[in-house]
Amino acid sequence: MLEIRDLSLTVSIEGRRVEAVSAVSLQLEAGRVLGLVGESGCGKSLTAQAILRLGEHQGVEKSSGDILLDGNSLFEMDDESLRRIRGGRISMVFQEPMTALNPVFSIGSQITEVIRLHLDMDKQQANARAVQLLHDVGMQDAEQVLKQYPDSLSGGMRQRVLISMAMAADPDYIIADEPTTALDVSVQKRIITLLLNLQKKRNLGLLLVTHDFGLVAEMCDDVAVMYAGQIVEAGKVADIFDHPAHPYTRALMGCRPEVSEPGASLTVISGQVPSPGHWPQGCHFAERCSLARHDCMEKPVTAACWQQGEHIARCLHVDEHDMDDRT
Amino acid sequence: MSVLAVKNVSKTFSAGGMFRASGKGKRAVDHVSFCLNAGETLAIVGESGSGKSTTARLSMRLLKSDTGCIAWNGVDVTSLGGRALRQRRNHIQMVFQDPFASLNPRMKIWETVAEGLRVHRPDLSKKQRRDLVAETLHLCGLDEAGMDRYPHQFSGGQRQRIGIARALIVEPAVLVLDEPVSALDVSVQAQILNLLKELQEAKGLAYLFISHDLSVVSHIADRIAVMFDGRIVEQGRAAEIFEHPHHPYTRALLDARPILHPSQRQNLKSADNPVDKTGEGMADTGCAYRLRCPNVLSDCATFDGQLNSRGFACLHPLSENK
């Protein structure tokens, strides 16, 4: 199991260290898909990158908490063990298939590099594995693709190549950060199906970082909604969709164009996510929340301030909202 | 009279670099026709490479078409150039997809927004220009206090509002919106779509809305033209296209829309991994969609791809197969 426990991260803004992720806890189990949902600037990508300790050279620091892989802290590992875990046990699929591949190396050399880094294989074996991997991600002319360079592939094909690289060393967990956002809608659907098929076949734990509840509906078993550095709601996907508890979750679901009547004006969340360093003292969402009361602003709201089984929400007034009103 | 009329327009880009003079070109847009009336929204929908952005650029006369003609407000602008074209540009303005790349990072917001005035309102003093910028920013939901700031100080949604203000300041009749919300978060996307609606109602603007996302389009379009491989394969009123698509490609686009609730998930058959051959293939002759089409029959290979009188280009449309 991959467990994020009370993780807080700080970033440097104008010479000051400010908290950007605040006591986040998540659990990713083998065979399950966990969606981490929120707007840009909520800290969801920082959290996801922290799992592989990727933000550190950009000045992201851990101020408290821990990340445990099968009980072992990733922060106490030496560089060699960490390198084996990156790509070996946990790998990552990034958002931008256009920039995540190196334009001056062939697809083949980029895939075999990953394979040989993690598996004890000679060139020929690595090549054979690369062909197999490309087949697994639905590319038919795998031998041909290996010789090509990224610029001759479409966005969807590049994303398939990136997924095949993530699968290269048979990892147990995959972190996918907005894997379909840069793609056409029709290509998105195929990449989603592909990721889900791979996930099921290999019993992967998949962490999906996204702002899109449509993707969550398609893919996730569990959902955690993040707002301004905090998890504001978490639970099973059916509970979150049937009874969204936090006003932010409801608002985010409500502003999707596909849920409102054609032509009607769309529901919006006024204002924007407060940036790190400017979080309010009480509920982080209060200033944008149409249901906010006086007590919301007074003191920090605890993570499981509302709870129903495994479904938790960081909101003082859940029971007063109409729970069946699915915006 | 249409504010924008495009008739039989084609555009071929030559293949290869500058040292490969001849060779087969890529036909990006192939005999495309449509018209756009004041106050309405026509959405051009299709995947990357379908020619929708090229169509937008041809309509704007940012590109010169190989054949066909383009008229703005009934005036043929197909072969206008230079100064004559520049002076008519206030008729039709563009809002780009990427609010991070489309604003000059070294220009203050007010300078960017005021740029169009240099050509179209040279009579204005600096004070008058600043006043007009403030008014236009206000119209787009921005505080005029930000006008002396630089683009990096604004969020994606705010920058898109700035992009809209820049287009609106010369009082165009047509806005060409090239994927205006694709780069934005869902919550911000809703704000921008609402703003576009308000502006359209207030000013009677016509929108040519380019998008790959049918759920966004369902919200804003009166009419839809679906493009595939450089051609319009189906065209009609938005509600009809959503309810009764005729072309199998339109159906495929509709099916690719995100689901609303986990209960709508389709059971995955682990055997059939989606394969890209079916996704990327386009036929050179006959119906371009036939390699992916579930309804394909032998006569599709010789079909000329013309839109019929009912607004679709297909020999075996869905209604007759179901």
Q: What does the model show?
A:
The complex is a heterodimer of chains A (327) and B (322). Chain A has a single domain (2-320), classed as P-loop containing nucleotide triphosphate hydrolases (Rossmann fold), CATH 3.40.50. Chain A contains 11 helices and 12 strands. Chain A is an alpha/beta fold and 327 residues long. Chain A has an 8-stranded mixed β-sheet with strand order 6-7-8-3-9-10-12-11, with helices on both faces. In chain A, strands 2-1-4-5 form a 4-stranded antiparallel β-sheet. In chain A, a hairpin with a 2-residue loop joins strand 4 (61-69) and strand 5. The mean pLDDT of chain A is 90. Chain A is globular. Chain B is built from 11 helices and 10 strands. In chain B, 32% of the residues lie in helices and 19% in strands. Chain B has 2 domains: 4-17 and 25-243, Rossmann fold, CATH 3.40.50.300; 245-259 and 277-322, no CATH class. Mean pLDDT of chain B is 88; it is low at 269-279. The chains are: A alpha/beta (327), B alpha/beta (322). Chains A and B meet through helix 6, helix 7, helix 8 and helix 9 of A and helix 6, helix 7, helix 8, helix 9 and helix 10 of B.
